[in-house]
Structure formats: C-alpha cells, structure tokens
Specification:
By secondary structure, this protein is α+β, with helices and mostly antiparallel strands. Helices cover about 45% and strands about 20% of the residues. The strands form 2 sheets. It has a 4-stranded antiparallel β-sheet with strand order 1-8-3-6, with no helix packed on it. The longest helix is centred in the C-terminal third of the chain and has 27 residues. It is globular and about 55 Å long.
C-alpha cells in the first residue's frame, strides 16, 4: 500500500509548500509524534480518555467496540492517509467506549489535542480544511446509519468496497461482516450472488 506522510498529506490538502508544513509541525511545539506500532497492538483502550488524533502514514487501524455479550462491532477502518480519533472522548472529556487496534505493522502520527488550535493560528487554510474534513466525516456517518437501518446487505457491501477499495485484501472476512452488521455466512452469500451477477452480465 502507498505510504502517505503527514507532510505530504498537508501539503496536498492545504495547498501550501512543504517548508511551511515543516515549520507548522516541527518548529511550533505542536505536540506531533511519529511512532511505529506492531500488528495487534491496541493504541487506545475502552475506558481511557482519548488524548490524541491519529494519522496513518503506513499500515491499517480499526476502530471498534465490544458489547456486553463480548461481540465486536467495527465502526470504521483507517488505512493510509486517514485520521482516526474519538471526538466524544477528546472534546467532551468522556472515557472512550472504543478500541483502536493496528491490523498491520503501522507507522502513525500522534497529534495532541491542542495540535489543531495551534495550527489554526498559523494557517487559515487549515481551519477551512478541518471544517471540510469534519463535515465529510459527519456526512459519512449519517450515510452509514441510513444504510444499516434500511439498505440490503448487498447495498451495504457495495458501499463498503467503494469507501475501502483495498481493505478486502487486508482484513479477514469476519471483520468486513462486523463492519456491515451481518454474519460472515451472510457476507459469503452476498459475494457469491454478486459474483454470479457480474459473471452473467
């Protein structure tokens, strides 16, 4: 998978040169920290206070909960170039209900909670970019809720591969099924039915 450094990501999306990005990240005490995590490592546990936003430069994370029966529910995946955090915990000072786990050996950037206010002071473009990022995230969550409430398993699966075109090759089938809210057997049927449809077209 293609590595995306946070410098490259900001340079592309903020439309400012890499020298300015370097200054924003390294010269303004913005509490920016690049770390490597191993496959299977939990970087945020249920019950903790979330103090960071994570950016994935290389690898893959998943964000999930475990219900009272011990069943896992995956809310989303974060491949290269994605941010992941618990906004409820970080902004409202509530213990998180979720886990964040590395599904592959990964390189991630930990951004302290005061990172974004400091960057806002330095770059007006960043404020607009963050607003767009936030509203895009809300729109995607609303769409996902609607799909879970009213869409067929096939429609949810097709939406999944549109959002995560390479995830199917990187995670076990039961995780995809967990994200979709169906059983692994149900996912197998969906994939078989779609394969037959595409074959007969």
């Amino acid at each position: 998978m293609k590595t995306t450094t946070i410098e490259e990501y900001f340079a592309k999306n903020l439309k400012i040169d890499e020298q300015k990005i370097h200054q924003l990240l390294y010269e303004n005490q913005t509490n920016f920290n690049r770390i490597k995590v191993k496959k299977g490592e939990i970087i945020m546990h249920q019950g903790e206070l979330c103090q960071h936003t994570f950016f994935v430069e290389e690898g893959l994370l998943r964000y999930y909960s475990i219900d009272t029966r011990g069943k896992e529910h995956i809310l989303h995946f974060a491949p290269e170039g994605w941010f992941i955090s618990d906004r409820d915990s970080i902004y409202f000072n509530q213990p998180t209900n979720y886990f964040t786990e590395a599904l592959e050996d990964s390189t991630i950037v930990k951004l302290e909670k005061n990172f974004f206010p400091k960057i806002f002071d330095e770059s007006s473009n960043f404020f607009e970019f963050n607003e767009h990022l936030l509203h895009s995230h809300i729109r995607q969550l609303q769409k996902r809720i609607t799909l879970l409430l009213s869409a067929t398993a096939e429609e949810r699966y097709l939406d999944f591969i549109e959002i995560y075109p390479d995830i199917l090759l990187r995670v076990p089938q039961w995780m995809v099924a967990s994200y979709l809210g169906i059983t692994p057997e149900g996912l197998s049927r969906v994939r078989k039915d779609l394969a037959n449809k595409w074959k007969n077209q």
